[in-house]
């Protein structure tokens, strides 16, 4: 019984090596991959299994074969030298019995260059391997081509950032590319080839690869403002193309709200507050007062402004208008006041939104303590015109933020 088991084991080893040799002869021509120092690289191989998957392995080949990572369907992942497998490798299965085995290499340096072997052990097919020759690019400064762009987009919209345009002749059929994002001096790789490798919660389920290697970002959020997204293409034999796009985010604020402060009981004084929410990146509040009141600060009129940032990154503006009229006779029985918000939108334009109008009676020099107010609403239209499009008979006092 012992002799029979020894014979079967030796025969199985011979069979495995025979199958491995046949597959490597057909498919094991090494593929060259070029990487920049400090960049991240993702190596991927895949196979379509007909039977069952026994295990997969990534190794680095020098004068010997050094194990990097191993995956077994029953026993899970194992990575050499105690390295966490979560950030190093990934295994996925797609429809059609296609198994994909991915290795992530970060912060490339000369010590990481060399040959990397991906292997699948399948039953009954045998062992299949793929070799990558990873090369570090060091002399590419004179062969670089750069492009810098800016794209403006409203919040919650979809943004497509092109990689390159009208340079198809520059890109051959064999090239490597990656999408990176930079914020406050920190750079992170989002996508390499067609694989999303970002672990950032800021971009989870928001980035994908579009047509012509463009980057889809949806929905656009406040914290995307001033972020720089870069597409890096390495074209053999070493030409590097870089396209960087800075994103500018805009939000349309809510309609300004104007109210009269009735909490004070000061004879001959009117106080109005104008509030504006969901402001980004900036806005101005402008007061309009019916009549011939002078602009700016005076003994009869004063304006105080406040601006604060909420937890979602939007700004909230508040402007308080105080009008004193008790020291001289009123020039008009009725006075109308309202406020207007001026805010930028994409395309170097400025839009405005007006609050409702409040019309009140000044009465005599000694007005009643509780004067009756009549409130009318103006049309809440949004126009691509500045404040000076208002009738020249109106006086305005600007509250700049």
Automatic annotation (TrEMBL):
Residues 38-118, 253-359 form the Ig-like domain. Coiled coil: none annotated. Residues 375-401 have a biased composition (Polar residues). This is CD96 molecule. Residues 373-401 are annotated as: Disordered. GO terms for biological process: cell-matrix adhesion; inflammatory response.
